[in-house]
Amino acid sequence: MAYAIKAEISDPKAKTFTFIAQKTMYGGKQIAEGDAIFLFASENEGGAGLVARGVVTSATAARKKPGRDRQTPRVSITVKRTARAKRPLGRTELKPLTDWNDGQPGTELNFKFYRQATNKIVGISDEAAAFLATLF
Predict the structure, then answer these.
(1) Count of domains in the chain?
(2) DSSP state of 63
(3) Phi, psi dihedral angles at 28 (to 5 degrees)
(4) Distance of CA 1 to the CA centre of its chain
(5) CATH code at position 47
(6) Are strands 2-7 and 36-41 parallel, antiparallel or unpaired?
(7) What DSSP line would sit under 26-74, residue for residue?
(8) Chain segment 62-75, per-residue pLDDT in tens
(9) What pTM, to 2 d.p., does this model score?
């Protein structure tokens, strides 16, 4: 399975990225060393969407906070960049794709990243990964 992360990325040209205690959804908590990941610079923090593709070099589940019954799983990861995006893909490009049942990879990404606009790590389908790969 491939993954995607939407997070604050201050330097999209960096060769290595570290993300601490990131929220996970849609299978994102299964991420592990060696997995492919697509990096989206969060528009919530001034980013522009898809910036890079990489490989996870480390992944560690974050400890749950004591005294809370219900918590979203969080994971800390380090990513080595393998390519920079050549074409844009972000909220602007994905916003019109709202037929949640159309099976299109762009719609999947819109649903997972922008229906609930928080930053997160998500698992993505092979079709979504193939679609994203065309942007490099």
Answers:
(1) 1
(2) P
(3) -60, -25
(4) 13
(5) 3.10.590
(6) parallel
(7) TTGGG--TT-EEEEEE-GGGT--EEEEEEEEEEEEEPPPPTT-S----E
(8) 988 787 778 889 99
(9) 0.94
